[in-house]
Predict the structure of GNAT family N-acetyltransferase.
Amino acid sequence: MTSFWTGKRVRLRGIEPEDWTAFMGFAVDEERLGDLLHPPRSAEGFCAWAKEQAVTKSDGDCFSLAVEALDTGQTIGVVGSHYADPRAGRFEYGITMGAGHRRKGSFTCHPRRHHT
């Protein structure tokens, strides 16, 4: 039996403290997109953030998960849900893939649709 969180190319898992270097790389990639610019953060800042995320429990329907390549075990992205309001039935989500891993089908999805 396979896990719901594991696909053909990637698996979603909790963020680990050693993921900080990948997240620092994602921040550099996002700077190049140009639509949102954050002030520079130190390596220690990314390290502390990853350590904090590794022990943080999900807040209801809000969570962040690392995207890990099955063939290499490398952290290649992150996916998360934010501002979930189950009462209103809405939420926001974010997906970040490292620049070297985009357009390779790692995050191709086949949504399940339920019609009544």
Observations:
- Residues 20-33 form the longest helix (14 residues).
- The CA atoms of residues 4 and 112 lie 13 Å apart.
